[in-house]
Specification:
Length: 203
């Protein structure tokens, strides 16, 4: 397969995924999440049920179509930041961008739907935990960030909670201005990573 053919195939795959997600969200908002089944979405999007499941693992995932992109953006805030750029401002900048995206016009009905559905709330919690673990792994893997794995996981949880809290605030940016100094102070207070102990007699 040539590079051009591969690129065309990936674009077609992405377009199909987006069509399914857009169709599902429209149906969920029109009829109610619980009233719409997987087969309804597949029929409306004009795809086979197997095609739908090749893009989305479950019904709940249809509502969180962008969660993988969000996860990648969070980890890239760590891995792609400029040399010597402090970690906390880089994370705050990305969290603010994500919050702005999720509070844009038209987003409120989606969050109301999520809040009203126990299944979607539970899935949302699992997504946030996965994002926190991915972010923690990126922080722990950065040799310039000399904190322990526990500190990295703690920071990641704080950051994900900051996203959730600021998204729900009437002034998200003001909320982040209040939250991130506390996160930064906690990160600064974390003890440095303990170097591995050399085996006895080594060296």
């Amino acid at each position: 397969m040539t590079v051009q053919q591969s690129g065309r195939r990936e674009r077609k795959k992405a377009a199909t995924r987006q069509k399914i997600a857009d169709t599902a969200l429209r149906l969920f908002l029109e009829r109610g999440y619980d009233a719409v089944g997987i087969r309804d979405v597949a029929a409306e999007a004009d795809v086979a049920v197997t095609t739908l499941f090749s893009h989305f693992a479950c019904k709940e995932a249809l509502v969180f179509e962008q969660d993988e992109d969000f996860e990648h953006r969070l980890t890239r805030a760590v891995t792609d930041r400029a040399p010597h750029e402090p970690l906390i401002p880089a994370l705050r900048r990305e969290v603010l961008a994500l919050v702005r995206h999720c509070t844009a016009d038209g987003a409120a009905p989606i969050w109301h739907m999520i809040d009203a559905s126990p299944a979607l709330r539970k899935y949302d919690e699992s997504v946030r935990l996965r994002h926190a673990e991915a972010l923690a792994a990126a922080i722990a893997a950065d040799p310039a960030l000399t904190r322990s794995e526990t500190a990295a996981r703690t920071l990641a949880r704080f950051v994900i909670d900051a996203y959730s809290l600021s998204r729900e605030a009437s002034d998200p940016e003001a909320a982040l201005d209040e939250i991130f100094p506390m996160i930064g102070a906690a990160w600064q207070a974390a003890p440095p990573r303990t170097p591995p102990v050399s085996p006895a007699g080594a060296g």
